[in-house]
Structures are given as C-alpha cells and as structure tokens.
Amino acid sequence: MTKKPFDRIVRPATPEERQRHAEIREKAMQEFPPAENAVRSTKGITRRLSMPTEKKKRRNPAGKTLTYTAYFLPDEEAGGYTAHIPALGIVTEGESLAEARTMARDAIEGRIAVLRELNQPIPKDVEPEQVEVKV
C-alpha cells in the first residue's frame, strides 16, 4: 500500500490533554455563553432555535442628512469639472457641472457606506478657511 503525501498519524489524546481541553471549553463557555435560545446537542454543538427579535441599533439612523463642502473646479485640459470633498478625501469628476455634482453625491454616499460597514466614525465637514496672500 502506497502512502499518500498528506497522510498523518493521529494518536489518541492523553488523559492530561483531555483534562486541558475540558478546561479550555469550560473557560470559553464562561467568557462567551451561548444565546438564551440556544440548545446544546449531544455532540457539543450549540445551535440557535430562532433568530433574536432585537435588531442592532445603527449609529447613524437612515434618513439623516449630512452636508459636506465640495469644490467644483473646471478642468481646462480635459474639459468637464473636478469635484473635491476634503472632509472625506474624495476627488471625482464629471463632463458637466451637473454630472460632477451627481458623481460627488455618489462618491460621498459610497464612502459613508464603507465607513459604516467597517464600524468607523463618519467624519464631520471641515470649515473652509481663507488664506490671504500678497502678490
């Protein structure tokens, strides 16, 4: 009989190893108890009987309106407009001012969706500041 390359020999656990495994399982059950509606089967697998009725509350409820400062600059070389949203680090463009506004709104919504998915805070708008220069 030829030996397969991934064959391995598995030995039975020693009594000390079994005791240590039981201690680890017990500690895990104390730190991470099963849900109230969970049932433990004979094989040690915990399963949930029904979905929990409580829904997780979102940090920013749907429908909340956020406002961000956007700068629309004409792109003289390529034509169209470039939109800058400094609070979110977004730069996008459109062939017309209306398209640039639509692209900016879409980029802002996408960035906020990603931040929510990653459970990161949503930045507030930055206040524009005027810089005076003598020429």
Sketch the major β-sheet. Answer: 3 strands, antiparallel
Which structural category fits the helices and strands?
Answer: alpha+beta
- Mean pLDDT level: 78
Question: Whole-Å distance between the termini?
Answer: 89 Å
Which stretches are poorly predicted, pLDDT < 50 over at least 5 residues? Answer: 48-58
Helix content: 25-40%
The shape, in one word, is: elongated
How many helices? The count is 2
Percent in strands: 5-15%
Looking across the biggest beta sheet, what order are the strands in? Answer: 3-4-5
Computed CA radius of gyration, to the nearest angstrom: 29 Å
Total number of strands: 5
What does this structure look like?
The protein is an alpha+beta fold. Among the domains are: 17-45, no CATH class; 71-117, no CATH class. 28% of the residues lie in helices and 15% in strands. The protein is built from 2 helices and 5 strands, in the order αβββββα. A 3-stranded antiparallel sheet has the order 3-4-5, with helices on one face.
Task: Summarize the model shown.
The protein has 135 residues and is α+β, with helices and mostly antiparallel strands.
Would you spell out the secondary-structure blueprint of this structure?
Blueprint: H1 15-31, E1 38-40, E2 46-48, E3 71-74, E4 81-85, E5 90-94, H2 97-117
Antiparallel strand pairs: 1-2, 3-4, 4-5
What labels would you give this structure?
three-stranded antiparallel beta sheet; about 140 residues; single chain; elongated; alpha+beta; two-stranded antiparallel sheet
